[in-house]
Amino acid sequence: MAVTPQSRQWHELFAARTRNDAGDGIAVILGFLGNPELISFAGGFPDPATFPADRTAAILQELASAGDASAFQYAPTRGLAGPRDAIAGRIELLQGARPDDDELLITSGGIEGLELVSKSFLDQGDTTVVEGPTYLGAIMAFRNYEAEVVAVPLDDDGLDVDDLAGRLAAGLRPKLLYTIPDHQNPAGVTLSVERRLALVELARRYGFLIVEDVAYRELGFDGSALPSLWSMGPDVVLQAGTTSKTFFPGVRLGWAVGPAEVVAQLASAKQNTDQCAAALGQRLFEEYVRRGWIDEQLERSRALYARRCARLLAALERSMPPGVEWTRPSGGFFSWLTLPVDARELALRAVENGIAIVPGAPFYPDGRGTTNVRLSFSNVGDELIDVGIDRLAALIRAS
Fold first, then answer.
1. CATH number for position 245
2. Is 142 in the same domain as 257?
3. Which pLDDT score is estimated for 338?
4. Which string of b and e fits 307-345 if b means at least 16 CB within 10 Å?
5. What DSSP designation does 289 have?
6. N or C: which end of the chain has fewer CB within 10 A?
7. What is the pLDDT of residues 63-119, one digit of tens each?
8. What pLDDT is recorded for position 37?
């Protein structure tokens, strides 16, 4: 091994904007996935039982046999025409409005949508509002562009829009407001219709862009969904979607829909990020949509996650000691616990007892969440849910 005259501490050269603890949080969560000895409530991963392996293999064979070069070539930055049409048609079916051609961009998953909007809008010191708590990947994306991230609280009806209105009236001026209105990550709550309407009006009055993350929108346990923010306010909303929870995450596919000027700026930013979303994933998803297979898969997925959620809530009700509270989601992957003990210490002791959980602090930009835990039920076997919650409750009682 070559030895340099002077030892170099590479971290001293890292850009200041990359010194972000939220990224470490994501790495820890993904690390739990590789440990088969843990009962992991940590990662928000779909259950592999929902992955369409046989049908995907059949579509791949058809594309290869037909000599469809578009599936294996670079794609236009905004996406291939066929997949764009399929996604636009599905948005129209599910949300009641169809984006124009210049209002839609295909992305490499939902996280790229957050990267592109951050890259396009945020300068050092700009303000972004998020829900407190929120998806830690969003905090990381905004902080990577040296934005000030301000958390507005939420409750069982989602983002506290009255609290936001008060802050705006007092002088808060964000460029962006990021929200997960449906089956929120990490809290599992859903924004009420009344608050959706009020939020859109605030965006129009104060001139900020709402970034609506719809990762879990199609995973309501009864198949229903409230009107999307984009359908209510297409002039002030950029919707970021992903197929990772509804199709499978291996294709890294998503979309951004919003005002044409905003989408054009995102497309420009994408040219210098990954240039284009993978064409093969685009074509796979297009065929899956056009054949009606995505709706069949979603029906099975909703039933699976509804059963897992019911089992988790029953186990919490049966096992948890007084002083522990939790949310009761109607869709998605998560429940959010409030505890009478320190969540980080509990998480460390939980790993020693074969359980992985995520303490709440990484889901806030301001140090809160020290007595909160996110539990994901989506990828835990039914019987293991009972075992894991019993162990967790015993640890809380012993604290």
1. 3.40.640.10
2. yes
3. 98
4. ebbebbbebbeebbeeebebbebbbbbbbbbebebebbe
5. H
6. N
7. 999 988 899 999 999 999 999 999 999 999 999 999 999 999 999 999 999 999 999
8. 85
Among 294, 322, 356, the domain-final residue is: 294
**198 and 208 inside one domain:** yes
Rounded CA separation 162/170 (Å): 12
Interatomic CA distance for residues 58 and 158, integer angstroms: 41
**Last residue of a domain, which of 294, 327, 350?**
294
Give the pairing type, strands 237-242 and 254-257. Answer: antiparallel
Q: Round to whole Å and give the CA distance between 113 and 213.
A: 9
**Does residue 147 fall inside a structural domain?**
yes
Are both 92 and 236 inside the same structural domain? yes
Q: Are residues 191 and 302 in the same domain?
A: no
Per-residue pLDDT band for 36 (boundaries 50, 70, 90) equals confident
**Strand blocks (E) in the chain:** 39-40, 104-107, 127-132, 148-155, 158-159, 176-179, 209-213, 237-242, 254-257, 325-326, 334-338, 355-356, 358-359, 372-376
Is the N-terminal amide bond of 329 cis, ω within 30° of 0? Answer: no
Count CB-CB contacts under 10 A for residue 14.
Answer: 10
CA distances from 382 to 204, 207, 243, 388 (A): 45, 46, 25, 10
Q: Where in the sequence is the domain holding 356, given as residue range(s)?
A: 10-51+298-398
Q: Are residues 201 and 281 in the same domain?
A: yes
Interatomic CA distance for residues 114 and 150, integer angstroms? 16
Q: Which two tokens stand for residue 105?
A: 């961009």
- Separation CA 114–CA 184 (nearest Å): 16
Residue 95 has φ and ψ, to the nearest 5°, of -120, -5
How many residues appear in the chain? 399
Q: What is the CATH number of the domain that holds 368?
A: 3.90.1150.10
User: Measured between alpha carbons, how far is 360 from 218 in angstroms, rounded to an integer?
Assistant: 25
Assess whether 15 and 140 both reside in one domain.
no
Residue 151, token pair as written in the block: 């958390």
CA distance 343 to 371: 5
Q: Is residue 1 part of a domain?
A: no
Rounded to two decimals, the pTM is 0.93
Question: Which pair of structure tokens corresponds to residue 84?
Answer: 């764009």
Q: What are phi and psi of 246, to 5 degrees?
A: -110, -25
